[in-house]
Design goal:
- By secondary structure, the chain is α/β, with parallel strands linked by helices.
- It is 30% helix and 22% strand.
- It is built from 11 helices and 20 strands.
- A hairpin with a 2-residue loop joins strand 16 and strand 17.
- Helix 3 packs across helix 4.
- Bound molecules: guanosine-5'-diphosphate (GDP), 6-O-phosphoryl inosine monophosphate (IMO) and magnesium ion (MG).
Amino acid sequence: MAVNLLLGLQWGDEGKGKIVDVLTQNYDIIARFQGGPNAGHTLEFDGIKHVLHTIPSGIFHEKAINLVGNGVVIDPVIFKKELDNLEKYNIDYKSKLLISRKAHLILPTHRILDAASEASKGKAKIGSTLKGIGPTYMDKTGRNGIRIGDLELSDWKDRYRSLADKHEAMIDFYNAKIEYNLKELEEEFFEAIETLKTLTFIDSEEYLFQAQKEGKSILAEGAQGSLLDIDFGTYPFVTSSNTTAAGACTGLGIAPNKIKEVFGIFKAYTTRVGSGPFPTELFDNDGETMARVGHEFGATTGRPRRCGWLDLVALKYAIQVNGVTQLMMMKGDVLSGFETIKICTAYNYNGETITHLPYNIEPQNLEPIYTEMKGWKEDLTQMTEASQLPKEMNDYIAFLEKELETPITIVSVGPDRKQTIKK
Ligand code: GDP
Ligand code: IMO
Ligand code: MG
């Protein structure tokens, strides 16, 4: 049985959590492959909204196994909060939540280092979620990290101490005047580790290999978005992992030739939270309307998301890098009521028209070139069939499919599980 991937094509928050939840009924295993609690994946059903940060978005289903893969970085404190929330809803997570021994731990000092590093950057700050993601991946690639599997060894606390001591010296180096009480943070951390240890740790690549042999179906869940990828995103305003399709191979131990469908999720417009270039960003009433109607506030930090029109140059790039086979368009309902909808189809780059994403997309070099289409007025949120969608929206979808040379197979018209139209 093949493995399918689901990942975001923009700057995150495309609606990955919602769609993974919708698709879980078709899979035996849902596996997160990268990122950490910088992610906020929102699911809505039965009138309740849930936000997951590290736990895969299939956890609310009866049967599916949810695996936190080796490519993920785990903050035990946040993880424990997620588990506490599941308990409130009587979710029996112990039987269906597995953690890779090779996943790395976010330590309290990683979070402080993140804050110190950002503070030292001043205006050039990344706009990080300050969850310790960058410092943890730095320790991973620097070969200093502590992994989930280490918690089963007797000397891990010695390794913890020497790493935390080193971090404290690094924090002092930044001279960022960040106040923290490490003793308190450690108390909370070690308590959360004990909760974590009640879960099942596995050699997840072997588990997934056997699962494939047995014909089990696997959906790999991405976090963040392609334009936040450490290699292909808008560096340095990116996250510290490979959010693109290749990240699922390294983040789970899945061979590239086992991947079948790559589901690429995008919003019918564009949003970005944090710093960095955003060619189609709007600073006018249209942008405000998108933010208001789309409730565009970060699910992890509550920060307002910047909004703008759909950028097909960037979207094409993301489709290519990921090998997307099917597109899923989210939040089409938010565009209801716009007289005209704009779509960026090319850039004016230093006086030249280009249709690829250049190395430098800073606003001083680049201006989006738009195609305009007629908008629609209908409220889409009660629609359940593709045949009910307004003509103008079908025109919008047809235009995108033609430009992107990829079919749009799901259209989402609201945050609830049920507000999902299969085409
Ligand atoms: P993720 O990080 O990709 O999982 O996305 P987030 O959960 O951070 O952000 C997506 C937001 O949009 C959440 O608040 C969802 O509940 C909401 N959402 C998802 N799909 C739709 C949709 O089709 N329409 C509307 N209006 N909201 C949606
Ligand atoms: P989901 O999975 C949107 C952004 C941050 C910042 C940059 C680096 O919910 O789509 P980091 O904390 O990784 O050091 O932040 O990346 N960012 C996200 N933006 N959605 C996310 O995740 C994000 N995770 C990180 O705002 O600009
Ligand atoms: Mg999110």
